Amino acid sequence: MTNPLRSALAVIAGVAVISLVVQSLEFTLVNAVADAPVRDMAGYFAVANRPSMLAAKLGYQTLAAILGGYLTAKIAESERLKHGALAAAVQTTALVWGFTAGEYAAFTPVWMRVALVVVTGPAMLAGAWVRAQAAQILDNSPREEP
Q1: Number of domains in the chain
Q2: Nearest Cα to 87, choosing from 128, 144, 43?
Q3: Domain presence at residue 125
């Protein structure tokens, strides 16, 4: 039987790690690439929406989603793919809301918003699947007796 508290923690941690990784990387990269100190949101998005930055964002968002799905499945310890799917649904819902009703939604190109929504959920499921496979291998491996 699945512990409801553990399940909630797994989903929250998986979604949180994506936000933490993506926002930290984006902030760091934007400030590193900017020609001058970024002083406002318009300047921030002027740098963040450069083609090279958008390509990087798609890459690190995907990697963070894989990590988030993996972490969700690791914490859950049971029904790993179901927990990964729930975390992916929560993250996808948050992205859709943020990209349609969020304060800064209009600053991100539409194609990028669509790409991030399309890629993030499956990447989280891939991370959960990897952890589920690793757990299955570990569960089936012979253990040495002390």
Answers
A1: 1
A2: 128
A3: yes
For residue 145, being part of any structural domain is answered with no
User: Is residue 57, in this structure, part of any structural domain at all?
Assistant: yes
146 within a domain of the structure (yes/no)? no
- Give the integer Cα–Cα distance in Å for 46 and 37: 12
Q: What are phi and psi of 38, to 5 degrees?
A: -80, 125
Could you tell me the two tokens for 60?
């690190």
Q: Which domain holds residue 76?
A: 4-140
Residues of the chain with pLDDT under 70: 1, 141-146
Q: How many other C-beta atoms are found inside a 10 Å radius of the C-beta of residue 58?
A: 15
57-66: per-residue pLDDT in tens? Answer: 999 999 999 9
Give the span between the Cα atoms of 73 and 66, in whole angstroms: 11
Whether 13 contacts 79, CB under 8 Å: no
